[in-house]
């Protein structure tokens, strides 16, 4: 078996694979990363692949818990039919690259805009020819609300729900954050269509706030879970 590890900004996700499908999956928040050793004890592993954007102490905890050395991935110039046009590959978060590889594998030959709605919102542009053109990074839903709570005197409150014309402050907070996120996604989608001269790209959503965003975005739009893990699966199978 192979172990695939996605060490994100707030959680560590993992999955076991026999090379074809994911056989087992799990997740812990950073506060419980010490439990990984117990959860992975007794596993018979051929190898482990990881993608990390977490702080160094979390990466150290993952390495200490894993029964075999972890092969940590980095963003690359090319893999799996995708050419990465990021100017400085070293500064790109590997989670973004793994998700792009997974989206390409799931939707080959299509223009894709990939939005990962987690702690941060990242939005990526991928052409049907396999050119990854780059993307956006902005605060995710919770971070937007946290910044408003920290920077204003009267907005430290729970968010409500999205409304087309919010008439209560909790709904105004939720609607403002979600509209900002959806607007960024649709603007990049429009720019990609202008770049290619083709119809608007298929939109792929992933991350914890994908369901919140789905009703606010134009079709074609699909949710795909655990794209970083699926990107690692592709790498592991090619290695």
TrEMBL record:
Pathway: Cofactor biosynthesis; coenzyme A biosynthesis; CoA from (R)-pantothenate: step 1/5. Keywords: ATP-binding, Coenzyme A biosynthesis, Cytoplasm, Kinase, Nucleotide-binding, Potassium, Transferase. The active site is at 95 (proton acceptor). Its EC number is 2.7.1.33. Substrate binds at residues 86, 93-96, 169. GO terms for molecular function: pantothenate kinase activity. It holds the Pfam family Pan_kinase. ATP binds at residues 6-13, 119. It catalyses: (R)-pantothenate + ATP = (R)-4'-phosphopantothenate + ADP + H(+). A monovalent cation. Ammonium or potassium. Its cofactor is K(+); NH4(+). It is found in: Cytoplasm. CDD domains: ASKHA_NBD_PanK-III. Catalyzes the phosphorylation of pantothenate (Pan), the first step in CoA biosynthesis. Homodimer. Belongs to the type III pantothenate kinase family. NCBIfam families: baf. PANTHER family: TYPE III PANTOTHENATE KINASE (PTHR34265). This is Type III pantothenate kinase.
